[in-house]
Amino acid sequence: MGTDSTKSLGTILFVDDKDLILESAKRYLANAAFQIVTARSGHEALKMFNHQTIDIVIADYKMPDMNGLEFLEIVRERFPSVRRSIGTGYMDELKSIQTISDNLVSNYFKKPWDYTALQQELEHLLEIKKQLENDQLMETLGEIGILPTLPDIYNEFIQAVEEGLSARDLASLFEKDAAVTANIIHIANSAFYGRSKTNSLERAIITLGFHSIQSILLILSMKNTFDRDERQEKYLQQFFLRVSLVNFCFLELHKQIFDRSLDRLDTSLGLLYDIGKVIILQCFPDRYQEIAVYKQNHPDQSFYEAEIALGYEGVTHNELGAYLLRWWNFSDKIVELALYHHTPEIAYEGYRPSTRVLAYADALVTHLLNLYPNPDIDFDSFIRDPIDQQDLEYLTYLVYQKIKQHQDSTQVPVN
Questions:
Q1: Fewest CB within 10 angstroms: 39, 42, 100, 231, which?
Q2: Same domain, yes or no, for 331 and 402?
Q3: Considering the entire predicted model, what is its pTM?
Q4: Quick check: 296 and 316 in contact, CB under 8 A?
Q5: pLDDT digits (tens, 9 = 90+) for 312-326
Q6: CA torsion, points 252, 345, 330, 362, in degrees to nearest 10?
């Protein structure tokens, strides 16, 4: 099937064993800004990849011979750049199978579909893809060479969780890497995860939870992929302090604003949203130092604002981090948060509330780190919405306590 030149955003492949579903998708999405191709089975769909450029695939979960997850596993292996999605009416069953985000599925589209909403979301995803493939960003990524891949221990961890292994089994897996073991125990004993101390790796895994372990492993693996001088090591320590604080504030703010805790799949979003800074520190250390010097001279400006002022618009840590998270097929939600946490007003409507809360947490932590250890904070200098001043003062107290505990244990300057 040839490509329709009017469908400029890309091509989406629907895979479903029911003709009615496929025909409905083609009919209701006929005016969308993307091309639709269809297949009635995973086997038929795999043949289409040989002669058709596919940007996003949406596979039905329950199909005979090869179910949606089995099909997407093959797509991940053979065509890793394709975004992989599941369409299902069995969301509870599917999520019970997928005990952790394993980067196999980037998003879920629950059936029956609201085709208007589905079209808007798919067009938005393709627009994000287009934004993350601009010439300047591609040129910058080309300077990196081969993009970093997820490390073996990360992939082993994901597979172990998929197989339902216990915390004790996971501890045995991590014990093969002394550095990972030490870091996990250290983080579990930090101010961000309660007051009880442990030297047990198994207990540390239970304390942190699978999703936090997943994010921490990713950050630790990136830290361990390059040699660092003393200055870079200090920056990395500050980075981890900062994202830990932001993640803490993100969780607390979400409870205050929405009167409910975050879904367990989202409890570590605040650890990954700024991963682009690690990419810059690793691959473009001179740029990172340039930004750091600019910030020292302009303490009222954020890292992102410094990047824009220095001419890096379009290739900031936002775009670099979002591209890499998308490359690894992390959820579209974390890709969006990485890309828009400084501009939440243009995030996808479904992710906008979370993006706004994360943006607030990011700005608040930046504000408090710049002022620490000054106890006399002028709250009028910081926007109090979306929480009142009393709640903001209490949250500030908690943040300052965590900064102090961190500094007492590491002796690393906070900024």
A1: 231
A2: yes
A3: 0.80
A4: no
A5: 999 999 999 999 888
A6: -40
